[in-house]
């Protein structure tokens, strides 16, 4: 167990200090975050590995849909206007599924933010993930915080030039891989990578890779925290999502203040001394360059690395973890009232600890039930409802559709035998990647018969049509009714299609027009 004076004090100053706000157009001050270790850092490694793995590997997953459809598991086929996601195929007219997923993402973001603050920003946001990845490269080449600071201040020489060139070269490789992985979602990945390497891919592929390479390199390697601070709107929106029961990364000054690196001397002199030893470890590890001890700040992405750093110091000092922790505003205010005797005095550590050094019973402690409140249930209910509607729609949707367009000019023709003929454009949509035989039939319209252009068969009330897999079949259909059976200038009847193999069917109500004298 260490004494306070034995804890290393890092010369770290908050770049984005809440006490002295930087001018909006001030030159950027570089941040050199120290490598952290602990449970939250390990969780961030896990999230980074999963998210990057999903992004880079998904286009290479295969899914057998038969010989008439692509076998890429996830594919946005813009040429054929299809979206494939494993066993799900989305057509353009089914874009509401994508809209539903976007709604779920939005409500889910509200749910996460209202319960655990900016957890999305701190762990899973692409900007956070790629900055973490770029920092891994930077630390591996240039060293940890102190080594990078020294390198930054050193004059340019061969060593500095080699280190910087190596770092930026690897950053560019990562950026190119990022842009390259994106285009593989829009075409068959194995074929496209061959075309890209051979220089025969479409120009839009190279433009997309170039744009995403540039944005990844600039945002992840050069701008870093500035993207979150100045470009992202979410820090400014999240305030509406938070309340007094939302978890946020909090410096518990009710137990940390007043800070002292010489607690024993302060106590011997009758002065109060909190748990914070002013080691600046929380500042040194922060990728946003803030001091969490200044309170809640727009720049904080709640990555919790400051918690890991502070917990490590508390372990060395033999004190309870949680000087910096996830806490709710309600708990913080309750504990502040205890530490300040209801606001009548300054911080007094003796009010939160017994003479034996144990926390008093009146302190509020977090438990999971505090985040489950009405607001949480409303968001969770809305999110679940949207998801259930989408799942139900997917399970019950028809894969056979029918659309009929009546000829507008002429609306009807009187044949030489007096019978009346109407023309229609009938569209059969086979929405599965398998060929099917579709029976097209008339229902209603007494004595009516139809003939189909291109099919050499006598007029009939039904035809068997071969439908290509995953395609629209357009038929030109003429419907004829004997003059003596015409009942009015407009009669309603139905086109009906059915796949006898799967029992899928669809109907469309059409109008059969005739002259007034046909009554």
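^ structure tokens above, recovered residues below v
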């Amino acid at each position: 167990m260490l004494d306070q004076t034995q804890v290393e004090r890092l010369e770290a100053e908050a770049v984005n200090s809440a006490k002295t706000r930087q001018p909006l157009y001030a030159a950027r001050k570089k941040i050199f975050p120290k490598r952290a270790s602990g449970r939250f850092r390990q969780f961030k490694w896990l999230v980074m590995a999963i998210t990057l793995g999903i992004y880079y590997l998904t286009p290479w997953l295969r899914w057998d849909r038969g010989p008439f459809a692509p076998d890429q598991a996830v594919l946005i086929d813009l040429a054929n206007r299809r979206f494939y996601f494993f066993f799900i195929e989305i057509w353009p007219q089914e874009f509401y599924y994508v809209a539903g997923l976007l709604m779920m993402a939005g409500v889910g973001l509200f749910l996460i933010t209202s319960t655990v603050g900016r957890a999305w920003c701190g762990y899973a946001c692409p900007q956070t993930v790629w900055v973490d990845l770029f920092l891994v490269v930077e630390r591996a080449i240039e060293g940890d915080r102190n080594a990078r600071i020294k390198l930054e201040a050193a004059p340019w020489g061969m060593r500095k030039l080699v280190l910087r060139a190596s770092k930026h070269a690897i950053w560019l490789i990562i950026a190119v891989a990022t842009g390259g992985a994106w285009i593989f979602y829009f075409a068959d990945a194995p074929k496209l990578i061959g075309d890209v390497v051979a220089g025969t891919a479409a120009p839009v592929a190279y433009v997309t890779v170039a744009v995403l390479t540039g944005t990844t390199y600039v945002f992840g390697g050069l701008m870093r925290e500035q993207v979150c601070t100045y470009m992202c709107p979410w820090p400014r929106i999240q305030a509406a999502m938070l309340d007094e029961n939302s978890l946020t990364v909090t410096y518990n000054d009710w137990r940390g203040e007043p800070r002292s690196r010489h607690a024993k001397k302060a106590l011997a002199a009758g002065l109060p001394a909190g748990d914070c030893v002013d080691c600046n470890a929380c500042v040194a590890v922060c990728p946003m360059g803030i001091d969490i001890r200044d309170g809640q700040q727009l720049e904080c992405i709640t990555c919790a690395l400051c918690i890991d750093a502070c917990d490590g110091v508390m372990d060395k000092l033999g004190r309870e973890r949680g000087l910096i922790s996830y806490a709710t505003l309600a708990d913080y205010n309750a504990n502040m009232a205890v530490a300040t005797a209801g606001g009548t005095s300054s911080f007094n550590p003796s009010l939160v600890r017994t003479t034996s050094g144990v926390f008093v019973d009146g302190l509020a402690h977090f438990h999971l039930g505090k985040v489950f409140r009405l607001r949480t249930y409303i968001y969770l209910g809305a999110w679940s409802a949207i998801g259930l509607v989408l799942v139900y729609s997917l399970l019950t949707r028809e894969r056979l559709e029918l659309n009929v367009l009546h000829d507008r000019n002429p609306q009807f023709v009187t044949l030489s035998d007096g019978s009346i003929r109407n023309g229609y454009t009938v569209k059969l949509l086979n929405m599965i990647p398998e060929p099917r035989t579709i029976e097209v039939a008339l229902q209603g319209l007494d004595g009516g018969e139809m003939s189909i252009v291109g099919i050499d068969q006598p007029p009939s009330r039904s035809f068997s049509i071969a439908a290509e897999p995953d395609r629209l079949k357009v038929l030109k259909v003429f419907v004829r009714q004997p003059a003596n059976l015409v009942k009015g200038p407009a009669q309603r009847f139905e086109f009906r299609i059915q796949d006898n193999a799967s029992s899928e069917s669809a109907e469309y109500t059409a109008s059969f027009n005739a002259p007034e004298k046909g009554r």
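The first helix runs from residue 39 to 57.
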